[in-house]
Amino acid sequence: MSCSGMQFASYVTNKNNNKRINIMVALFVVFTFIILIVIDIVVLKAQKRKHPAFADAAKAVFNKNSLSLPERIFVSKGHTWAELVPGGFARVGVDEFVLKSLGKISVNYIAKEQTLVKQGEVIFQGTSGKGSFSFRSPIDGVIQDVNRNLTNIQDPYRNDWGVIISPSNWADNTKSLKNGQALVSWLKDEFSRLKDFLAVNSMNTELAGVTMHDGGNIMEGAVTYMKAEGLKNFENEFLTF
Hints:
- By secondary structure, the protein is α+β, with helices and mostly antiparallel strands.
- It has two domains: 3-58; 60-241, CATH 2.40.50.100.
- It has six helices and twelve strands.
């Protein structure tokens, strides 16, 4: 082989070797990164924490257009609803706006059967995060039945209703409740009011993870990241009437 041929062969060999070395270095870097991530995840799992790289993806959000609204419900300013059912009774529960705001509601008190209640009186109590909240009756009447299977509110308009009331003043009570298109418009205003509320109270709270992408979404359960004062303010602002 000529000298120039040997030099060319040597050049090709060195080039191939360099390529292999570069590939091995790249693979080493990738595998090292993966190993570090795995170790980090194992450590955080042992500490019962989430890895920041995946935390945001796990956070569900809601907006003013994502709330479901059954046609027959009437909703109070305290975000409890009533719906007439066969027999002239009214089924009563907590609306989805509150559920999304709090993220999860564990019920620890429901008023007893045969209790006479007035519009605005407490009929449920529950906890979410570190907060305890009271929910008020949207109508006057006597409690005829209680949902004994209600422990956590997840399906507010179907399985997770709270009580059935025999209304005593339905026509007058519903004048102050929201229904139909008026309810849709009001909930959009409530969503905007909630965003303003979160922005103001974030000065004194731990809103770890409130997300408002493009100004349109709020993280589900955002309210529960507040301190005690913020939680109380939420009840006063959104759950009373």
